[in-house]
Design a protein that fits this description.
The protein has three domains: 132 residues, Chitobiase/beta-hexosaminidase domain 2-like (Chitobiase, domain 2, 2-Layer Sandwich), CATH 3.30.379; 195 residues, Glycosidases (TIM Barrel); 145 residues, TIM Barrel. With 547 residues, the protein is an alpha/beta fold. It is 34% helix and 19% strand. The longest helix is centred in the first third of the chain and has 18 residues. It is built from 18 helices and 21 strands. The chain has an eight-stranded parallel β-barrel with strand order 8-9-14-15-16-17-18-21, surrounded by five helices. Strands 1-7-5-6-4-2-3 form a seven-stranded mixed β-sheet, with helices on one face. The chain has a two-stranded antiparallel sheet with strand order 10-11. The structure holds acetamide. The site of acetamide has 4 residues, from loops.
């Protein structure tokens, strides 16, 4: 009797163990069945059409990288008599949200069904999360049925490559992280006061001059000195094409950001006529120790907001249109991000040209001039079939007619934009700024703020005060990764993990299916995944004061 009880208990515990899947983000519905499917080099992938090939290739690359084997790909429709196969199937979904998929695993086969190719890809992401953290050439997967779909259409991660520059290999790694968590947008912040990072053939000085600074402050702004080391880099157009394709192969859209009219010091250093005061030397922030030449226009060496911004002249608009022409040729995204944040009005106030423009265009003030600037750029991009996204400052002085607003100074901008029937992407600082500290005991330099993973997990992209009608304008949300204090890829990884895992569940999982205690159980396993991938992560979650 005792023995029977022991066997029973063992079976129950094995079953319970099998039921504890560690999928992040949590799928819409999961049912675990008895039995297993064994995946090995003998398993074949069945493709019904070329459309599934990207997902098949992804799974093979993953298997090869982590387990040292891959699967034979067979183009075939009839799976009836086959065993030991992984099948991609075109399925009519009950709820045809883009990216919805089903994953069915029985003893003979694993089947990923979807009505659209991104669904197959997300099914693959779920499947590979079931693989072991151990290099094996044969392993079992539990029999199960998963039905899954994303909550939000826009699921993004941003990366600032202006303050610090990251090599192409890391950008690809970052895109892989985005893919693993079923996100679909990489917002690439390419231009800043401290460096212009995109090759523009018509304006070679943007990268010859604008991509480099003569030094960088040491420590937290204004710093304790300067490292006196020339720093910089940029992406060639060929590299950008390679990255855009790499992302597209993972169903990720890259949205480039070309900042205007503020954060323009690097562009102005390259082409001083872009400033309202081309003859004036660049103003440095107070108490910053400067390295090298400080005459004329310079690329900034510390962080913050600077008053030398684009002058709204014909020269500038002609320049920006030419730049944007090359940007559009590289990035097929529907949206181009034009920045619009943190543009001091000091220079426009003291510029006779700007004051005259305000009068002749019958604008209210410098905020009206900012709105004129953004609207003129929007008109140009709209004429080329593209739409703009701007930070929430673009609300000031009047929103451009077709603009999407990225709400970063809290949720207010997003709420107001939705009221005005504009699309909104939520990126409020208090919840999804991954440059904030995730512990009260941070021992590296960070910008400030305190955003532990619990806060990220608890974020709700649709503010409670929004009406149901306005809520329809919320496309989704995104985490922003400003890199003033992230000099190396390892620091970026440390800042995004594990918070990115929490964000994925905010964006993908039904609100009513979210549960912190269940997530934190899966998170313990996720730390093993970070190790398995070979990525850094913050262990602040284990710090008792952060629990
Ligand atoms: C921002 O963080 N300045 C958009």
């Amino acid at each position: 009797m005792k023995q029977k009880l022991l066997v029973f208990c063992l079976l129950v515990s094995l079953r319970m163990h099998a039921q504890e899947l560690n999928l992040i983000p949590k799928p819409y519905r999961t049912e675990i069945m008895d039995g297993n499917f064994t995946l090995s080099a003998e398993t074949k992938i069945f493709l019904a059409s070329d459309a599934e090939e990207k997902s098949a290739r992804f799974i093979n690359d993953y298997l090869q990288k982590f387990y040292g084997f891959h699967l034979q790909i067979v183009k075939k429709n009839n799976t009836a008599t086959q065993q030991n196969i992984l099948v991609f199937s075109k399925t009519n979904m009950e709820n045809p949200v883009q990216g919805a998929y089903t994953l069915t695993i029985n003893r003979n086969m694993a089947v990923i069904g979807s009505a659209d190719p991104s669904g197959w890809f997300y099914g693959v992401q779920t499947l590979i999360q079931l693989f072991p953290f151990e290099k094996k050439t044969k392993f079992t997967l539990p029999c199960l049925e998963i039905e899954d779909r994303p909550r939000f259409a826009y699921r993004g991660m941003h990366l600032d490559v202006g303050r610090h520059f990251f090599p192409v290999d890391f950008i690809k790694k970052y895109i892989d992280f985005i893919a693993m968590y079923k996100m679909n947008t990489f917002h690439w912040h390419l231009t800043e006061d401290q460096g212009w990072r995109i090759e523009i053939k018509k304006y070679p000085r943007l990268t010859e001059v604008g991509a480099y600074r003569n030094g960088t402050i040491i420590g937290h702004h204004p710093g304790t000195g300067n490292d006196d080391t020339r720093y910089g880099g940029f992406y060639t157009q060929e590299q950008i094409r390679e990255i855009v394709k790499y992302a597209a192969d993972r169903y990720i859209t890259v949205i480039p950001e070309i900042e205007l009219p503020g954060h323009a010091s690097a562009a102005i250093a390259a082409y001083p006529e872009l400033s309202c005061f081309p003859e004036e030397a660049t103003r440095k922030a107070k108490n910053v120790v400067w390295s090298g030449d400080s005459t004329g226009k310079q690329v900034q060496q510390s962080w913050g907001v600077y008053p030398d911004v684009f002058c709204p002249s014909d020269y500038t608009f002609h320049f920006l249109e030419n730049v944007l022409d090359e940007v559009m040729a590289l990035f097929p995204s529907k949206y181009i991000h034009i920045g619009g944040d943190e543009c001091p009005k000091d220079n426009w106030k003291r510029s006779a040209f700007c004051q005259q423009l305000i009068q002749s265009k019958n604008l209210k003030d410098e905020h009206g001039l900012q709105s004129y600037f953004i609207q003129r750029i929007e008109k140009y991009l709209n004429s080329k079939g593209r739409n703009i996204i701007g930070w929430d400052e673009i609300l000031e002085g009047g929103l451009a007619p077709n603009a999407t607003v990225m709400s970063w100074r809290g949720e207010k901008g997003g709420i107001e934009a939705a009221k005005q029937k504009h699309q909104v992407i939520m990126t409020p600082g208090g919840w999804v700024y991954f440059d904030h500290s995730q512990t009260k005991h941070e021992d590296s330099v960070v910008i400030g703020g305190y955003t532990p993973i619990q806060k990220v997990y608890g974020y709700e992209p649709v503010p409670s005060e929004m009406s149901e009608e306005d809520a329809r304008y919320v496309l989704g949300a995104q985490a922003n990764v400003w890199t003033e204090y992230m000099k190396y890829p390892s620091k970026v990884e440390y800042m995004i993990f594990p918070r990115m895992s929490a964000l994925s569940e905010v964006l993908w999982t039904e609100k009513t299916h979210k549960d912190w205690s269940d997530f934190s159980r899966r998170l313990t396993n996720e730390f093993k995944r970070y190790d398995w991938w070979g990525v850094r992560s913050s262990k602040a979650y284990f710090d008792p004061v952060n629990q």
